[in-house]
Structures are given as structure tokens and as C-alpha cells.
Automatic annotation (TrEMBL):
GO biological process terms on file: methylation
Keywords attached to this entry: Methyltransferase, Transferase
Positions of region (Disordered): 238-275
Lineage: Bacteria, Bacillati, Actinomycetota, Actinomycetes, Pseudonocardiales
Pfam families (UniProt xref): Ubie_methyltran
Identification of the protein by name: Class I SAM-dependent methyltransferase
One annotated GO molecular function: methyltransferase activity
Amino acid sequence: MTPKPGPIERGGVARSFDAHARTYDKLVGSNPGYHEHLRLTTKRMGLPDRGAGLRLLDVGCGTGASTAALLDAAPEAEITAVDASHEMLAQAQRKTWPRTVRFVHGNAENLAMSGIVGPYDGILAAYVLRNLLHQDAALRQFHRLLRPGAPLAIHEYSVRDSLRSRIVWTTVCWGVIIPMARIRAGSTDLYRYLWRSALQFDGVSDLSKRLASAGFEDIRVQTVPGWQQHIVHTFLGRRPPDPGAAAPGEAVAEPDVDAEAATPAEGIDVTKPPS
Ligand SMILES: C[S@@+](CC[C@H](N)C(=O)[O-])C[C@H]1O[C@@H](n2cnc3c(N)ncnc32)[C@H](O)[C@@H]1O
């Protein structure tokens, strides 16, 4: 008898995405706002000149939804999209892309191993940081890969700081997402992991501090509209323009965050005390 697989754990998630790759687009497509929110995040990165002359990196690109959002914000940029799941990448590669987009198989925790070297003019990590084993090291790696002054956007579920967000998240997961996964994908393991991992992941305040500790500045957090308001957030940080300022590992000022007030839809600058 084949032993029943154990619960999905952080660090081994990409393998589970292999099994869910064929149904992934259908499931996220029925989540209202999924693509629109990704586009909101890439727009918030403020990439200039339609991306002309820029090199961008999409970490954990999956089936290419986040890559398409990057392309939407910067259609003239050169985009490298990396994922550790062969099957998710295969789904992405089945779509039509301009020649400026390339897909690479690799681990987000060690991008150099896949020949991903900077500098990049912007990095997007959508729904992936939460899944990594060594999140601080990954953020420091993103910092190193960025050109001074260039932005990092982390697009993630972050519900820990708000009881209301945790209740809405749990209700939507168990009332809609998990039952839908049972019907469409025939298994719920990945989506039960999704529920659990988002509850365990950093709140807005802790992730903002984590970004600051990794050397990022101009940290801003904005949420998205829809049922995901105060649940999905764009975390933006910038590698300091002056190479002498706040290198990773050096002491940096902690952002001052009021967790409950942290994510009005219009966004806040968490480097300044809320007024
Ligand atoms: C929830 S999907 C998000 C995909 C895409 N960014 C989007 O917004 O639709 C997370 C992706 O991260 C990938 N992933 C998880 N751990 C990874 C790792 N250590 N390195 C690279 N990719 C990873 C998974 O294979 C999966 O495709």
C-alpha cells in the first residue's frame, strides 16, 4: 500500500504545485480580482517608460499570472520568470509570450544556482515568500539582485495583525476555496496548506520590519479592493539608491506600524508614523 503523503510543509510546496498545475488557472480564474490585484501591484512598482531598457524578475511565476501582470506594467522590459515547479512552468510556457520573456526552472532560495544574476530593475514575488523556508535570506538575496534604487514588490496574504481579516480568510477558504478545489482539482491538500500558511505568515507589521532588516527602505504597504481587502497586500521596498546606506545586516530604523490601521485601501507609508 502506498503511504498517504503527509501535510504539505513550507519548503516542499513547489512539488505540490506540480500536481495542481493543470487546474491552477481555472481555480485562480474563479477568484474575483486575482489578476486585477496582481496588475495593481505591478503598477504600484512605478516602473518607468513602459519598462524600456529594464530587466525584471518574477520569482515564483507559477503559470505566468504574475508574469503577465509585470508585462502589463512594463511591456518593453526584459522579464525573467523563475519557478521551482516544472509543471507550473510548463503551463506558463504553453501561453503566448513576447520574446522578451523567458522562463527558468529554479529555486527562489538560491537563484544564482539557476544562473539568475543581477542587477535587476525590479523584482516581483507574488504569493511565494510565505512558502519559502528561509525568508530573511531570500529577502537579502532579492536585495543583492536589485540595482540600487530599484523596487521589490511582495504580493502576499497577510492576515495575522487583524482578527477580522483572519475570520474572513478562514470563512472564504473553508466556505469557497477548499470546496471548489475538491470539485475542480480532486484534492484539497494544497488549498488547506494555503489557508494554514497564510494564518501562520507574518502580519503587515512583522513583514514590514523584515523588509527593513533586509536593507530595504521606502517601505509601503497597500491592500487591494474586494473580499481580499486587508487580506492581500502589496509590500513595496526599495534598495537604497546610495550603496553606502543601510546595507543588509546593518542596523536600520524599524518602520512604525499600527497593525489595525496599517492597510487602508489607499495605502500607507509605514516608514512614517500614521497620522
Ligand atoms: C501560489 S503560486 C503563485 C504563482 C504566481 N506568482 C501567481 O501570482 O499566480 C506559488 C508558486 O511559487 C512556486 N514556488 C514555491 N516555492 C518555490 C521555491 N522555493 N522556488 C521557486 N518557486 C517556488 C510554486 O511552484 C508556485 O508556482
